[in-house]
Amino acid sequence: MKEIIQLKISLEQSKPVIWREILLHKDTSFFELHHIIQIAMGWGNYHLFEFNLEGYRIGEVIEDEITNGFGSDQLLNAKEVKLKDVISDTKEFINYLYDFGDNWRHKIRVEKFLALDKSLKYPICINGQMSCPPEDCGGISSFYYYLDVLKDKMHPEFKEIKEWFPKKYDASKFDKEKANKKLEKLEKYITKWMNG
Question: 100 near 122, Cβ under 8 Å?
Fold first, then answer.
């Protein structure tokens, strides 16, 4: 029985493409998937998120909020919808938006369905490339602008950007082992983020 889904998450408009490949159970909720992506990509989970597939929106429903509408107008609860409820084919894509201000758009491709490997602890990141941009840097175009400025010490904005840009940030690096150590503590991170 194929219980595991392999997904490839790519940050749109990144060049070279910033991406991660992950393996996870098909009964993973979209709420859990959001947190898995946050850890695997290197985001800090400071902002709202939404998944979109086949016209359906899936996100975090605030209990005090009244949600109206049907189909694509209605926000489905990410805690209730599981991957197996909506994914059935390897040709499917899911759109994932993180941070409605900076607008980090990700394309998630369903790559394959696999049998459970009892030697692995799921979820697990199996591959990836590049570091995700720092939080709150203004979106993809601002991110690349800042990287260009940081290459030129004579640039008038160099000093200011260097002061607030993460000190040890290296756009070319991705630490898979570090991501997987955090993924092993997924429940702990979810609890921490939920409690602020």
Answer: no
Is beta strand 56-59 parallel, antiparallel or unpaired with respect to 75-77? Answer: parallel
Per CATH, the number for 2-132+174-194 is: 3.10.290.30
For 43, counting Cβ atoms within 10 Å of its Cβ (0-12 exposed, 13-18 middle, 19+ buried), the class is: buried
- pLDDT band for 63, please (50, 70, 90 cuts): low
Domain residue ranges in the chain: 2-132+174-194
**Averaged over 162-168, what is the pLDDT?**
92
What residue type is 92 in one-letter code?
E
| Pairing verdict, β 124-129 and 56-59 | unpaired
Phi, psi of 149 (to 5 degrees): -60, -40
Query: 86 vs 30, 58, 74, 102, CA distance in Å?
Result: 10, 11, 16, 27
Mean pLDDT across the chain: 91
Q: Are 59 and 49 in contact (CB under 8 A)?
A: yes
Q: Which residues pair with 50 in a beta bridge?
A: 59, 97
Q: Cβ atoms within 10 A of the Cβ of 81, count? A: 18
For residue 123, what are its two tokens?
């979820």
Which helix H or strand E contains 193, and what residues bound it?
helix 186-194
Position of tokens 């489905």? 76
Encoded amino acid at 99, one letter: D
- Global pTM value: 0.91
